[in-house]
Amino acid sequence: MRKQTTCLVLSFLLALSVFPLPVRSGDVVAPAVIPAQAPIGGPGINWKLGPNEIATNFASAQNQLETNLKSILSVPADQRTFANTIQAFETANAAFGEQAQSLVFLAYVSPDKAVQAAAQKVESEAGTYGVGLWARPELYQAMKEYADKKETLNVEDSRLLDGMMRGFKSSGHGLSPADKAKLQTMQERLSVLATEFEGNINTDNGFMDMKLEDLKGLPDDFIKRLEQTPDGKYRVTLKYPDYVPFMKYAENGELRRELQLKYNNRAVEKNDPLLSEALTLRDQTAKLLGYKSYPDMALEGRMAETPQKVWDFLNGLWPILRTQDQDLKDLLAIKRQTDPKAERVESWELSYYSDKLRKSRYALDSEEVKKYFPVDTVVAGTMRVYQRILGVKFTEVPSPEVWHQDVRLFRVNDGTDGHEIGYFYLDMHPRDGKYSHAAAFTIIQGRQLEDGKYNKPVSAMVANFPKGAPGQPALLPHSDVETFFHEFGHLMHQTLTTARYASQSGSSVAQDFVEAPSQMLENFVWQREVLDEISGYYLDTSKKLPDELFQKMLKARNFGNGIHYLGQLAYAMIDMLFHSAVPADTSRLFNQMMEIIGMVPVQPGSHSEASFGHLMGGYGAGYYSYLWSEVFADDIFTRFEKEGLFNPAVGMAWRKEVLEKGSSRPEMESLKAFLGREPSSAAFFRKLGPQPVPAS
Fold first, then answer.
1. How far apart (Å, rounded) are the C-alpha atoms in residues 667 and 504?
2. Residue 669: how many CB atoms within 10 A of its CB?
3. pLDDT in tens, 429-447
4. What does the alpha-carbon distance between residue 295 and residue 307 come to, in Å, rounded to a whole number?
5. What is the pTM assigned to this prediction?
6. Cα 211 from chain centre
7. Number of Cβ within a 10 Å radius of residue 418
8. Is 319 in a helix, a strand, or coil?
9. Residue 487 is a catalytic residue
10. How far apart are the first and last CA of the chain?
């Protein structure tokens, strides 16, 4: 995550809470429901299901899972083996997971509201069903009968068993019948709350209608693509392609203030009560299971391991980052050029004055930079770069079956022997009801099948990049280019996996490592040889980004880092505080922490916690992982930087030692295998500036 780009890269079933952490599955050997008219040359997923078909397919998947579970339970205790019990349970979960994920995905992307509603219902039902499944005493007993044999297992099998038993532990086995029933009720409710919270954000279609004179300062291509109302006004929505440029360029400060207040209050009436209820239930759940707090429970299986380590990490950053408030002082200075009596820069002025300061200090015009990054050029160039780095080949599937006409499908093949690896979809532009951030979703997870073949992974990038005005290509700010490159890294992490088990494949890794591979790749879009591949002037794409402009970008690269990292630190601390002791007033604590740690005044009346999707979307007590994993990401890039961005040996080592492994071995082992040494924090702290570098 960079400059507030949002990523959702965990297995869908993590967000659904179908399977308690760390057991996350999502694949099928042979679908219980064969998609009608599966497209030739594609992954065979039917995206044209109606509401009734969605419900029917989900019920069929449940029935198939129940049949598989009965087979596992029928094995006598003395005949239990890893294969017929632990592996069989993993396989059954994977089969159900694949069916559920492809159905639930439609809740985030379908343009049909009836389909969205049906998929959201399935999402809720899947969460409730999964909680109940893991609470079944007979299933726990079956797994325990094998675990008690204490057989010697290889690393992959041992990690699968350990994770599975932790999953059952988190479902309350060992509690009294009354407490176990209470726990199940709370977990089922939490699943529903998470679904509703995200759905409320996605369906919040707030906007402001403005006159042409209200848009003074905004680029012509922005104005031309805005929807016009019957009375001739221009509709500015709260979606990123509208909101971000308006806050950056609009000269009317009062309208910026109004738009930000609307943005900060998305879904507040519906979501604030859901958040408070979820925080209370998470706390009660953790304590019922014998943990001191929810973070103590959530951090099991992560690299950080304990809340104390997380707080040590965050508190260690604070004295370094708090000295980097020069950005705010500089912004105030430029504001005083027009308002000599100004005492502070307001939150709705940050982007506006940052752009002015960037132009003044570096003579860098973001609109000029955009002209060298047409969407199609960026997409094609990014694919060429990834093909060179990872030794793969991408081929677009013609006329694929998709959920919307804008969506494209690509096949991934190995660049050496040509074998088919998997597929990914690109859904790039905003529309009503669609997932509102940028994310890479796993749809089908890779895993080894019983016949020895490998189940081909399928993923989708869902983004909200701008569409071009009529007759003009869509142009991306360099920050969006960075976002696309980042999200594409997640697609590759999910797609190039060779892990044996679904729950260990792709980005099903420790949550505080999951962002590291893509964060590392953000560095590539600041390298001349990469920019030559992904840039091209919009009127003549053979003209690459000029070196003069590139040098200005490099000088301004770390501009605003102080504000950015202070904000990230504030979010991480807010998340940990919310989950350590449930606040009586979430808005008050959120705003106080943003002002104290983020060091930026919050607009009165703001309730940003209501649209802080990470809190309910799988990152509860986990937002620190963005900063935590960035330490690893910067260290990883040093090898590419030293040995060559397109060095095939380095790229293949990255693919083999990290991307393919998933969580089939400890993430730290994968890091050390790629780096050839212990990881270091030196590169991360060098980036922050001339402060003393802490010991690694």
1. 11
2. 13
3. 999 889 988 999 999 999 9
4. 6
5. 0.87
6. 36
7. 8
8. helix
9. yes
10. 23
